[in-house]
Amino acid sequence: MATDRVSIGQMADAIMDGLEEYANLATDDLKASVRKAGKTVKDEIAATAPKDTGKYAKSWAVKTQRETSNSLDLVVHSKNRYQLAHLLEFGHAKRGGGRVAARPHIAPAEEKAIDTLEREIEKALKG
Predict the structure, then answer these.
(1) Could you please report the per-residue DSSP string of 68-82?
(2) Span 85-109, pLDDT tens digits
(3) Predicted TM-score (pTM) of this structure
(4) How far is CA 39 from the centre of its chain?
(5) How far apart are CA 73 and CA 64, in angstroms?
(6) First to last CA, the chain
(7) Model confidence over 18-55: pLDDT tens digits?
(8) Cα separation, 48 vs 104, whole angstroms
(9) Which InterPro entries does the UniProt record give (predicted)?
(10) Distance between CA 115 and CA 112 in Å, rounded?
């Protein structure tokens, strides 16, 4: 009578291999979700930014701060008009008195990207 036996060590190795493969696939999906959210923020800011000449709206970019095998840090920033971003987002005092009204365009884009990121992560991990 022959029986197939699997040792506990072999079973544990097989389970660990499966978990590592899943972790690698999940990491790739999560990085793709983060990249998509970063692009969403950039596009939303560019679309809703106050436009005088259009240079400010076009100045937004996504930059990879740091990427490791299991993490990705992105920054969405204005390449050459970063001083203007705060003034437009929150308003500012005028030189001769009075104030310039705030024109929020960064915070709404960030909120939209957070929702996008959450949906993308859920979709990636379920799919």
Answers:
(1) -SS-EEEEEEESS-H
(2) 999 999 999 999 999 999 999 999 9
(3) 0.76
(4) 7
(5) 6
(6) 43
(7) 888 777 778 888 899 999 999 999 999 999 999 888 89
(8) 9
(9) HK97-gp10_tail (IPR010064)
(10) 5
